[in-house]
């Protein structure tokens, strides 16, 4: 029973990510919701995670906490009728899931900034 609920929840997250991907391009969505929808969808569709999954426990934090919270926030910014339409279209898109190169580049840039900053701190102390 619980496994089925978990699968349904995961499917709804996937559908909502597709809906946000569409929302970022939809003229019925306010600009601020479009911007956040684009960010959340790009991050969720990025093949590279901010916190790599191979790191024990915290590696899955972004997948289990950050992405769903971002989705919930954006959904509240989009009118209900528009969101229902986007979800229907998102269901249709699940078979052809897009990848976000922009999201991957964004995550790589964050890692480069963090590594540069850490290297600078180590160099200053040495």
What would your notes on this structure say?
By secondary structure, the chain is mainly alpha-helical. It has one domain (2-125). It contains 5 helices and no strands. The protein has helices spanning 2-23, 31-45, 61-77, 80-93, 101-125. Pfam families: DUF1232. Keywords: Membrane, Transmembrane, Transmembrane helix. It is a multi-pass membrane protein. It is found in: Endomembrane system. This is DUF1232 domain-containing protein.
Features:
mainly alpha, DUF1232, 0% strand, 126 residues, single chain, 5 helices, DUF1232 domain-containing protein, membrane, transmembrane helix
What's the helix and strand layout?
Blueprint: H1 2-23, H2 31-45, H3 61-77, H4 80-93, H5 101-125
Helix pairs in contact: 1-2, 1-3, 1-4, 2-3, 2-5
Question: Short summary of the structure?
Answer:
The chain is mostly helical and 126 residues long.
Structural class: mainly alpha
Give the overall silhouette: globular
Encode the helix/strand succession as letters: HHHHH
Q: What's the total count of β strands?
A: 0
What does the largest sheet look like?
Answer: none
pLDDT < 50 stretches: none
Instruction: Indicate the mean pLDDT.
Output: 84
Q: Indicate the proportion of strand residues.
A: under 5%
- CA radius of gyration is 17 Å
Helix count from the secondary structure assignment: 5
């Amino acid at each position: 029973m619980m496994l089925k609920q978990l699968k349904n929840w995961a499917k709804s997250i996937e559908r909502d990510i597709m809906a946000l991907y569409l929302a970022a391009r939809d003229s019925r969505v306010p600009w601020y919701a479009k911007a956040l929808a684009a960010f959340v969808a790009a991050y969720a569709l990025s093949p590279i995670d901010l916190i790599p999954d191979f790191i024990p426990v915290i590696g899955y934090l972004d997948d289990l906490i950050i992405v769903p919270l971002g989705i919930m926030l954006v959904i509240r910014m989009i009118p209900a009728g528009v969101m229902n339409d986007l979800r229907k279209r998102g269901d249709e898109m699940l078979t052809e899931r897009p990848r976000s190169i922009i999201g991957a580049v964004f995550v790589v840039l964050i890692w480069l900034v963090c590594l540069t900053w850490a290297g600078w701190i180590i160099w200053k102390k040495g």
